[in-house]
Amino acid sequence: MRPIIIGIFAAFFFAFTFVLNRFMELSGGSWIWSASLRYIFMIPFLFVLVLGRRNLKPLLIEMKRNPGKWFLWSFVGFGLFYAPLCFAAAYGPGWLIAGTWQVTIISGSLLAPLFFETKQTVKGPIKVKGKIPLMGLAMSLIILLGVGLMQLEQANVLSIKTFMLGVLPVLLASFAYPLGNRKMMEICDNRLDAYQRVLGMTMASFPFWLLLAFYGVATVGLPSTGQTVQSLFVALFSGVIATVLFFKATDLVKGDMQKLAAVEATQSFEVLFAVLGELLILSAPAPTYVAWIGILLVIVGMVLHSYVSNKEKGEWKKSRYTAESDRYTEKEADNMLKVADTPKK
Q1: Where does the sequence pass through the membrane (predicted)?
Q2: Where along the chain do its domains lie?
């Protein structure tokens, strides 16, 4: 139960991104500053975190090894992810952006063939080209249906141009985020932990955020004190606290596929928290019953997708004892799987 509670708290802090970005937009702040200030403010927080874990030197060595790749994929994973999300906040409520953002699960699945996975077999580790998880993708249709219902409500009150400006940037972000992060994980090859990668990617993408900030000064002027403070809260709540909580929750259930699926599914609560946040903070109108049905479908789809995806991983793990060798019966494979998953004291 504890990992589930921690996962829900992580979703709560992640939701601050969508609510505060919308608040800043409605208050006259520019999406340019909402995007750039978050990552500029994240650097000192993450720096202290990684330095406290005594992991700063290995990160700097790793970045020096492939500076070009760090700049490229950090720009894709962070720059083309967060800037479009902030831009979309100007054209739709936070809960709508949060709901549409769940499409990233589908985007991540479609990117699988671009990467190789390391699989452990009875003959040792092998490199296998990723495959699109068809069962998980089928569950994703529920998410798409939910997103479609939420967007349908907005389409009735917005022009096609405004509607597209609020949707297409989120779709771009949904592909850029998993692509950039997976590429960086591939480049690091398990030599860095998640905290080091986030700090490294934030530092490597800093030139982009700096250029965006200069563009903001030239076009909209300096940010207001209110937007600066709110961007600081987004950096702290979503960029640092939510990430740490989510990693903590997944670490607690590492090795248990069903519990891991449940923790991952808690992130669908971002949509609900975004709705509640906008109702309380922005006094925004409540979603219609059609939009509520869409939100419910997104949450159900998230839960089913997470469960099916992790079940498929468990089945593959079992197959390493069955399909790879005819020495093991199915019962023996089950026993070996239990032994392999038993934590070592």
Answers
A1: 5-24, 30-50, 70-90, 96-116, 132-152, 158-177, 198-217, 229-249, 261-283, 289-308
A2: 1-339
